[in-house]
Amino acid sequence: MAFLEVKDVSREIFNNNGKYLKIIDDINFSVADGEFLSLIGPSGCGKTTLLRVISGLDNPEKGEVTLAGEKIVKPSVSRGYVFQHGSLYPWETIRQNIGSGLQAVQGKKFDQKLVDHFIEIMGLKGFEDAYPNQVSGGMAQRAALARSLVLNPQLLLLDEPMGALDAFTRVDVQNIVYKIWQEKKTTMILVTHDIDEAIYLSQRILVMTPHPGRVKEIVRNDLPFPRKRDSSEFLETRKRLQQILNFK
Ligand SMILES: Nc1ncnc2c1ncn2[C@@H]1O[C@H](COP(=O)(O)OP(=O)(O)OP(=O)(O)O)[C@@H](O)[C@H]1O
């Protein structure tokens, strides 16, 4: 049995105009424990919809998702979710944000040492008492990652967390994600528009096509870690993905 199994999943809705819409159709794939998988595809192909179903935020009209054999029917602290924007509470400091989920689970005497540990490894020391609008975009996203990771999730869902960052900061946060994945072996699923980001981080890349969203191909990415963005193998993999995505 695979760790995460997405079986025959379709998401169908009636939009605000009463029109029937099939957003994703008959999605099937599995993810091994500790694996890093990326989802890529054109805008609107249903990547976020699929991630929301895996998180339990939405339920599919057809099919099911199981994690370690348990059917996912609602969100759980065991499945972290980091958004492109707005994963942090603006009214809480960085420290309070990172600790808030832990406090909800462990109560008032929650493990402050663990929060300190994540402040340290995310390079947020000196900024723990700042509010999200007082730190850089990269720091805010590192804090958002810490906020999920501090709960030691079985599965971390990353919905373009680097998407709104400038190129330098994006690489910096990619390196943090890579380091955390190497150290903690947390199973991760990343939605991204950035082919290089998918190649840099993931062991398999699931390519989707739109209207409705379907799986076009799942590409194995066996380049040795840490990956070199300018190696000929990296560029070959990029070319292959561009072909699958029909880039001219
Ligand atoms: N609740 C909803 N009501 C109406 N339409 C929806 C709803 N949820 C998703 N959609 C539509 O379904 C399609 C897929 O949306 P989704 O956000 O999952 O795609 P995506 O691949 O993540 O897009 P992007 O790459 O632009 O973030 C889009 O056309 C979107 O407008």
TrEMBL record:
InterPro entries: AAA+_ATPase (IPR003593), ABC_transporter-like_ATP-bd (IPR003439), ABC_transporter-like_CS (IPR017871), ABC_transporter_ATP-bind (IPR050166), P-loop_NTPase (IPR027417). Keywords: ATP-binding, Nucleotide-binding, Transport. One of its GO terms (molecular function) is ATP binding. Residues 4-235 form the ABC transporter domain. CDD domains: ABC_NrtD_SsuB_transporters (cd03293). The keyword Nucleotide-binding applies. PANTHER family: ALIPHATIC SULFONATES IMPORT ATP-BINDING PROTEIN SSUB, TAURINE IMPORT ATP-BINDING PROTEIN-RELATED. This is Aliphatic sulfonates import ATP-binding protein ssuB. It comes from Liquorilactobacillus mali KCTC 3596 = DSM 20444.
